[in-house]
Every structure is written in structure tokens, then in C-alpha cells.
Input
Amino acid sequence: MASRAWMVALLLAAASASCATAQLQEKFYSETCPSVEDVVRKEMVRALSLAPSLAAPLLRMHFHDCFVRGCDGSVLLDSANKTAEKDALPNITLRGFDFVERVKAAVEKACPDTVSCADVLALIARDAVWLSKGPFWEVPLGRRDGSVSIANDTNALPPPTANITELTQLFAAVNLDIKDLVVLSAAHTIGTSHCFSFSDRLYNFTGRVNPSDIDPTLEPFYMAKLKSKCASLNDNTTLVEMDPGSFKTFDLDYFKLVSKRRGLFHSDGALLTNAFTRAYILRHATGAFKDEFFADFGVSMVKMGNANVLTGSQGEIRKKCSVVNH
Output
């Protein structure tokens, strides 16, 4: 009986999630705010022409929103007592919040009280990839904004130290499968990371805290290069390119690096420990299937963007992304 009740509950939850996803539509604002994508893109073109390195943080912000409480804009909320998602350790290096507010203000000017911050962020993420010479995909819209943002909820975020088991579990929690995992990990083809996100691989892999305590899965030459940039475990400021040489361009070089054991994070290297993800990496490391990967990335981004969304009468349309409406 208990097993049957559990199955019924599971089916009801799946039906509810499917219903919410179905309410997202590519032309959701075709009548209420037909200019929304043009407004967002105009701001993105202007910003990235001046600061192309902003693309990766904006894409990352959308990831971090969707993995915590779903894609509801909760990562954008401020907290007077510093207990919001953006105050948690995994999010303290996020940047671009002021820019998101600027885009939202432009959207509000064009269409007051109509477009959610969650939708604005989803469009920003898509344009960040496209303007970095990556794929373009249609973004289903109609999300509404949540009003809850709790720092401890960021435990749902896949950490850079995760192994393949942890990664698959955390992705599954937002209805993403093993293919989505390897495809979306390739977002690391753009952007930089602070040394503290991976320096344990250089100096403290097993907890001994000495220069010889290294991650044996890292390619030695790459290890030496990283050590020349990150001098110690205490380096909290130095930035390292995740995809050296083309960190501002969305391309297939990520797969080439990981295939050579030059993935920056534990989580990158972990993709070589699973048969499916390893095969996907080796296929795309050849560089011969760019269109295939670009199509896969768009599909996985749409799936991620559907994670636990608020729609219809749920949530609200925040006027400012950093505060709930009063």
C-alpha cells in the first residue's frame, strides 16, 4: 500500500511539473510585450561590446538560479541580513547583478509589470552564449518570480569538487539527465575561475596540504601551468581562464581540454569516469560535430530553463529584480 501511494504521489508530481512546463511558450509575450527580446539583446550587445568577459558570469547566474528552487529569479534577491542565495559561498563570486537590473529597467520601461526577472535572466543567458559565437535557441517564456531566497538552499548547486555520482544526482534533481550533464558542463568553454575553486587539486588533494599532494588525474604540464598562476591554497583573488586561449569564445575547445585531462575542476575530470560522458567528450573533442553540439546545448538549456518554474498565478512579476514587490 505504501509503495502504491508513493507511486501515485510521484505520478502526480510529474504531471504537475509537466503542466507547469507546458505553460512556457516561445511567444508568451507576443501580445503583451512583443519587443522584450529586442530590448534585452540591445542591452546585451552594448554591454558585451564593452566587457565581453561578462558573458560567462551572466550564463552562470542563470544556471545558479535554475538549480536552486527552480528558475524563479531567486538568485537575484537581496537580503538585509545576508541570508539570500547570492550571499552563500557558491554565489559570492557571481557578478552582473547590476547589469541584470539595468536590463530589467529597460524592459519595464517598454512593458511595465509584464516580464519576470526569471524570464529576463533566461534571455540574457541565451544572448550571452549567442554573442560569444555560440548557438542560438528559442527561449520558452512565461516564468514568474519567486519571493523566497535562502542561502542554505544553494547546497543544490553542483560544486566544482563533485564526482560523477554527485553530479548525476544533482542534475537529476532538476530533471536533467547524463547527456544534459556533459552538454551543459561545456559552458566552461567561456569564463574564468578563482584559484580557490580548484587549488586543492594542486596542493591538498588528499588533505596533506603540501606541494606534492596533487590530483594524479591532472595532466602534468597543465598542473605546472596552474601552479605557476595559483601559488598557494590561500590565493583567493587570482583568476584563471577555464578554456585557455579562447575563454571569450563559445566553442568546442572545452572537450579537447577535458579529453587531454586538462579540465580545470574535479567535476570536469569526473566526466571521463563515465562511459557515456567520456564518449561524448571524445566525439566532440575532434571538432567535427559543432552543429550537433550547438543543437544539443540549446536543447539542454531549454530543459534546464523549465526546472520547477512558477507560472500562471504563482509568484509575481517583480518590478526590481533585487527585491520582492510591496
User: Anything to note?
Assistant: The longest strand covers residues 192-194. The beta strands are 192-194, 239-241. The radius of gyration is 20 Å.
